[in-house]
Amino acid sequence: xxxxxxxxRAMDFLFELSINNERPWFQEHKPEFExxxxxxxxxxxxxxxxxxxxxxxxxxxxxxISRIYRDAxxxxxxxxxxxxxxxxxxRADCRSQGPMLWFEFxxxxxSHGLGYWERSAQQAAAFRKKIDSDPKRFEELLLxxxxxxxxxxxxxxxxxxxxxxxxxxxxxxxxxxxxxxxDDYFGDELFTDRLPLLLSESLSGLIPLYHYxxxxxxxxxxx
Length: 223
Prior knowledge:
Blueprint: H1 8-19, H2 23-28, H3 30-55, E1 61-65, E2 84-91, E3 100-106, E4 109-115, H4 121-133, H5 135-143, E5 152-154, H6 170-173, E6 179-183, H7 195-204, H8 207-216
Antiparallel strand pairs: 1-2, 2-3, 3-4, 4-6, 5-6
Helix pairs in contact: 3-7, 4-5
């Protein structure tokens, strides 16, 4: 049986969790978590994976869904539960090094896009080398990003810039991490059963840039 789409009540639950972030409260309200968040979010992730896998079989996407539980080693005085969930589409053999597509749903809203979870200095250097080899190609890819005016770039910048190529490329070139995506993109359709298709359509527009990142990382697509 379908769990149905996410609903505004899921946001209400996350708000209540944020002010009652302790195990007894969560255990008491766990059936609500399962019905409002866990099952609908898991279904969204699996439907998105199914659509993207059929559209781009050569990408070999695997699915990773976050848990609501924080890492017990990294609480730093915070409660044991996150106020958001996320999932990523990423090839299983390069999760520690390659790019990923993601969607996040949380108390502060939603985001989705393309990037690295944690990019090493070696990966960043390889990315810059890729850009250096043909800056015009990378510019064309950036200009072709759908709804570019609504997108934003995430990632810490280097204290000392690595170089200057163009106003369009420099924000990518001079970041330790670089992810592109969209905040609160789906409006009223966020809470409808159209979300898996709409999300897949938006992520599909980032696939050319995903291929480029895979090339930069030396990760070939599977046939």
